[in-house]
Design a protein that fits this description.
There is one protein chain. The protein has one domain. A hairpin with a 2-residue loop joins strand 1 and strand 2. Helix content is 61%, strand content 3%. The protein has a two-stranded antiparallel ribbon with strand order 1-2. The chain has 4 helices and 2 strands. With 157 residues, the chain is an all-alpha fold. The radius of gyration is 18 Å and the shape is elongated.
Length: 157
Amino acid sequence: MLNTMTRSQILLAIFALMTAVILGAYGFEYLGYAPCELCLMQRYAYYVVIPLSLIFSLLNPQAQRAGLYLIGFIMLGSMIFGIYHSGVEWKWWQGPTTCTGGGFGGGLPDLTKKAVMCDQPALRIVGLSLAGWNAIISAFVSVVALRKAYGSSSASQ
């Protein structure tokens, strides 16, 4: 199915998926699953890709190709960051000292905010934390965007 979609359609599908994912994150937050610092940082890729995917979907095919490459690499970075955060949650490596069990770093904690530790996932769905799911979704979007961008210009517009 993805092979028969135009670049514009892929960009609009990416827009829809990224919007749904970020709305889902806000939904979990509304339900009481407070995000940690790393969770909030993982959203940056979505904040960039959502408007970019919509803008590039309206441009000419060569611009769409460039946009898909850009989105593909942004989401590749998001996947790497999701893997890093998942590793912190599984205690495979140390996370930032400001939001892990190691303490609050050099300063005093902000007592007006609820302390949310980056090494303790708020929720697991089918064994994966939301950081793990972010890594999977980001990898999927990256592969789709890069494959469509790399495809021949006549067959994949």
